[in-house]
């Protein structure tokens, strides 16, 4: 039986979850977001395996090469050349996407909003890393119209709708003219019969669907146009990476 503090924490988290807030100890104990893996264990596993963290995590999720494929697809559609002054990532986690973006775009500043405190010391070592205070729903320390690329991967699929919507507002706010927003969500195009049945049978309550049409319309009203998409594997199904550019 779980200890009393754990029971209390789980109860509090059930109440706070719709607000995009949680009580954590080291890493999340909330059953709704267990896919976020603890830094110490993942880094140790990658060292033992003698492989980069992104390769270790891809193998862990039975999707070898998925990180590189998604990052390359995003960079190709973003078409930012070989230089971006400022990049912002929501939920950088292990830094597996950050390292590829930094290598490709050589940003002067790479802003990171990460709520998992155990990963933050590791992320500080990335070239140009600027660790922001993450409140779990805004980019409040990033200036309006200051960012060339705002991106997020394997984050919005786990968040309540209102938190995802808030982040989309914020991504649109911080982009400069010509800037790019990229993120993946579970859209209606991801949910074929096989995927839906599998998630129902396995009670995959951690995932949330967001209408692709709604996302495109929301960002269009804020001056962003969809330039492309890319499907990525997600634990028995798919998620869709959407890439937008500010007009």
TrEMBL record:
Keyword entries, A-Z: Methyltransferase, Transferase
Keyword Transferase appears in the UniProt entry: yes
InterPro entries: SAM-dependent_MTases_sf
Superkingdom of the organism of origin: Bacteria
Keyword Transferase belongs to the record: yes
Coiled coil: none
Gene3D superfamilies, per database record: Vaccinia Virus protein VP39
Pfam families for the chain: Methyltransf_23 (PF13489)
GO terms (BP aspect): methylation
GO MF, any single term: methyltransferase activity
Protein name, as recorded: Class I SAM-dependent methyltransferase
Originating organism: Amycolatopsis alkalitolerans
């Amino acid at each position: 039986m779980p200890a009393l503090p754990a029971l209390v924490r789980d109860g509090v988290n059930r109440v706070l979850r719709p607000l995009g807030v949680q009580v954590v100890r080291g890493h999340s104990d909330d059953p709704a977001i267990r896919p976020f893996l603890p830094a110490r264990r993942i880094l140790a596993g990658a060292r033992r395996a003698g492989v980069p963290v992104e390769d270790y995590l891809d193998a862990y999720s039975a999707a070898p090469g998925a990180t590189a494929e998604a990052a390359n697809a995003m960079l190709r559609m973003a078409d930012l050349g070989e230089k971006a002054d400022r990049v912002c990532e929501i939920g950088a986690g292990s830094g597996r996407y950050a390292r590829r973006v930094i290598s490709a775009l050589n940003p002067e500043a790479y802003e990171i909003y990460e709520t998992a405190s155990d990963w933050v010391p590791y992320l500080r070592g990335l070239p140009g890393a600027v660790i922001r205070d993450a409140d779990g729903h805004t980019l409040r320390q990033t200036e309006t119209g200051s960012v060339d690329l705002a991106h997020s991967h394997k984050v919005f699929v786990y968040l309540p709708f209102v938190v995802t919507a808030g982040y989309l507002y914020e991504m649109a706010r911080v982009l400069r003219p010509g800037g790019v927003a990229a993120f993946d969500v579970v859209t209606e195009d991801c949910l074929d019969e096989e995927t839906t049945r599998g998630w129902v049978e396995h009670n995959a309550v951690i995932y949330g669907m967001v209408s692709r049409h709604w996302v495109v319309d929301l960002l269009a009203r804020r001056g962003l146009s969809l330039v492309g998409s890319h499907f990525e594997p997600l634990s028995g199904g798919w998620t869709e990476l959407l890439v937008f550019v500010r007009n």
